[in-house]
Amino acid sequence: MTSSRRYVSPLRYPGGKAAMTSWLADLFAQQTGDLPVEVWLEPFAGGAGAALTLLDRDAVNEAWLVDANPGIAAFWHTVVDDGPALAALVEQTTPTLTLYDECRALLVNPDDADRFRLGFAAFIVNRCSRSGIVAPTSGPMGGRSGAGGWSLDGRFNASALADRIRHVHGMRSRLRVHHGDGISYLEELADSGLSDEVVAFVDPPYIREGNRLYANGMDAGGHQRLADALNTSPARWVLTYDDEPVVANRLYPERRVLGYDIRNTANRARVAREYAVFSDNLDVRGLSTPLRGLNAEWVRAAARPRAA
Ligand SMILES: C[S@@+](CC[C@H](N)C(=O)[O-])C[C@H]1O[C@@H](n2cnc3c(N)ncnc32)[C@H](O)[C@@H]1O
Q: In terms of Cα–Cα distance, which of 172, 109, 100, 105 is closest to 130?
């Protein structure tokens, strides 16, 4: 059993899986093989809450983060390459509506901005939007009038955020960041010969609400492409989704599926039912014990490998 210390990501992401990190750490720790399993891959990284906690606890040697959202990828690239300068800028920043609007405008044409400015802009929009969504369509926390008991800087404790950025920067030699499509990344991993060393934690946009919650959502074709990549991948993986019947019935009809309840990070008053789907080669012994608090039960306890 690993320690229960939880590192809090500087990015605040709707649907983040921080509550599951102890369970994920235990899951990672019990994987064995001819080669040591060393890499934690998040092909849909967002706030990368699990990856950063696992790195911080030394539960994994390396974490690889992939995100299709250019702002999010630029933020992580900047934390890794230029963390002290970013932290210093954050420490000097007091969010205003003018700054918020400038940052949001930068997200419209991300290719025109340099990576540092884009990463900073994504961070400001993330911390100062109620939703946490990094998109030009996001709205400022508290609205434009600051009504409703929320203020724009209500989640902007500059010195604490700067410390979190410095802390991730301190782990940079064990972090790899890639801007791009997580599904293509998984497909390429399958051909790379590195699959044995990797456990992928796959946390894509939800099927039901994903396109509302993220700037980079996924359509039915995207969910199917992901299923095709995972169902044929030699890597070990665990995937989390909302409890849509299509997950167990159509996308992963042969894989083990576990249902569990989790407090929704976008709306903490709500407990949401989710599914975890497992690759056949992932060792899930003892899995239900740490998940007991999450009211977990198998939807399908045994894989049904395809007939040859
Ligand atoms: C559910 S969030 C991940 C939350 C994350 N586990 C955390 O702890 O914050 C999904 C993320 O996937 C990203 N995304 C959507 N489509 C993608 C794709 N095709 N490839 C890579 N990332 C994608 C979104 O930008 C978003 O950051």
A: 100
